[in-house]
Amino acid sequence: MGEEVKLFGAWGSPFSRRVELALKLKSVPFEYIEEDLANKSPLLIQYNPVHKKVPVLLHGSRPVIESTVILEYIDETWDGNCTILPKDPFERAMARFWVKYIDDKLFSAVWMSCWSEGEMQKNFMEQSKEYLGLLENELKGKKFFGGDTIGMVDIAANFIAFWAIVLQEVAGISLINEEKHPILCKWIEEFLSCQVVKECLPEREKLLAYFHDKKEAILDKKAPVY
Amino acid sequence: MGEEVKLFGAWGSPFSRRVELALKLKSVPFEYIEEDLANKSPLLIQYNPVHKKVPVLLHGSRPVIESTVILEYIDETWDGNCTILPKDPFERAMARFWVKYIDDKLFSAVWMSCWSEGEMQKNFMEQSKEYLGLLENELKGKKFFGGDTIGMVDIAANFIAFWAIVLQEVAGISLINEEKHPILCKWIEEFLSCQVVKECLPEREKLLAYFHDKKEAILDKKAPVY
Fold it and tell me: Is B205 exposed, middle or buried (CB count within 10 Å of its CB: 0-12, 13-18, 19+)?
């Protein structure tokens, strides 16, 4: 396992930050390569010809793509001092289910709540409320989704802990708050206070400014939503 | 692992048929429970309160949901005489990538090509063409996506081998054909000729009649697309 590890990422992408966090949790040394998403490098396109997106994990000469696929690859390739997925098959299935739930349901509902207006926004906010409620419920009695330590669901939920909070500020709405989601907010506090998590987040002010700049163009449909 | 296994499925769902196929490949005895999707059973809603969808795999008292999550659970729980995912972490990552590609990209492009009209249909057909081309390429030099034997990608691609062929007939379009996809068509032939696969497919005429009946309502938006 002595082959070189490179991560092609983007500072503001929760998906490449997931991979960064998993590598650090596993104490895997790696070289980070920042991609300019407006002008993607030939290497990124070579390694991810299907989606042409970050993150790409390059292990030796083998590229692995899609953040959730990469997280499982990291867990199966390096022992490190932690496991990203639990050992028990049923608990593994539950973790995979919640990761899929975050990616397929929650992410787009929260994202679209922040980047839409009027009736559409109202509908997305209703959806987000329902989805966040289920996540709140899942956390009951636990410090992290992974139990006492950070696991795959916590890593995948980095978007909720950081990006969603910044986005709701930009949009001037309140999706996640202490009153409605006391357990989720406690988790956010715990998660963001971990040193290794802090190292894998963008600067708050930089992200805020980035989304503020994009807001008008996105709402006017002059820029793509993603 | 002596606990009872039950599968809540629907005859026409490629997703529950995936699980059926995996259980049979692993020689796991199970009880199949057909769900009426127009009138879901209280048990289905109890076991899958989040999505209220088939398939649900009940192992003892523990429900596992989402077909791809269930496939991994089956692979990790029962040894059987085959492995659904390869052993090597990189090959596992590649298989997971293609399964995600089929579910996130190919499925909706093919489905929507068959259930739309005019400009929208043209766009979905263009997308399907691109996505199917990549799948054709992935199969080069291989009998199955899994190599010499059926693996996770083959199981997930059951939709392409059977449902897509029926759907394109109903829609009167040609997405997958011998001329454009000789390798994919050879794979379809190989896949559909396996006895265990045949046991996990709906009757062709029944599925054809089902979609024919639905066609008008779906195109008129009188029925939901999914």
Answer: exposed
Residue B225 falls within a domain, yes or no?
no
The CATH number that applies at residue B35 is 3.40.30.10
Return the SS3 of A64. Answer: strand
Q: Which of B73, B89, B100 sits opposite A93 (nearest CB)?
A: B73
Residues in B touching A93 (Cβ below 8 Å): 64, 69-70, 72-73
Q: Is A68's Cβ below 8 Å from some Cβ in B?
A: yes
Chain A hits for B77, CB-CB cut-off 8 Å, are 89
In a domain, B82, yes or no: no
10-residue block means of pLDDT along chain A (226 residues)? 90 98 97 95 94 96 98 94 93 98 96 94 96 96 95 98 97 95 97 98 96 81 50
% helix, strand, coil for chain B, step of 5: 55, 10, 35
Domain housing A72: 5-77
Q: Which residues contact B194 (CB under 8 A, 6 or more apart)?
A: B150
B8 touches A: beta carbon within 8 Å: no
Prediction ipTM score: 0.94
Q: Which residue of A has its CA nearest to B97?
A: A69
